[in-house]
Prior knowledge:
The chain is mainly α. It has 2 domains: 1-51; 64-176, no CATH class. It is built from 6 helices and no strands. α5 (122-151) crosses α6 (158-169). It is elongated, with a radius of gyration of 28 Å. It starts with a helix and ends in a 7-residue tail after the last helix. 20% of the residues are buried. The chain crosses the membrane at residues 20-39.
Amino acid sequence: MASSFVLGKEMEILTEAWKLLGQPQVATLVLLIGVGVAIRSINMNRLVEQEKETVQLLFNARNDEVLSGGMDLLERVHDDPNNNIRAYGKEKKQDPDAVQIRYVLNHWERIAIAIRRKTYSEEIIKAASCSSLISIHEQATPMIKAIREATGKQTYYQELDWLANRWSKRPLRARK
């Protein structure tokens, strides 16, 4: 007998809940909650995909011998008092060394574009390469300026400039 009373009470609660859900305000609220959950799910999936793409980029870059060789070359040319890095943007622009340095600059220009468009995670790339990018930019700036002067186009490597300047203003913080 007690069990039929409880069952009757449960049915009464369900009936009242059903009536409540039938009201337009409640139905709208339920719909909005559902839309909110869907949007959050889409954003989380986008974030996970962005992070996967970023990690894949970083692993591929580790195995790119042309990229690592170009970064070493840029540093050597920059540090050599008998070498003029600007010349690689003008007079020596066809030199194999200039081509290799442009490979590095083009790599970072594409990354900067992808970061700006939110294809890659800026946070992950910054954690992995902040110092390297800032250093590359500082070393290559005279060459970049020479390329712009030679072509008359100020847009060469502008995204690289943007990213290096952004990270220079807000460098990585030391972990405590």
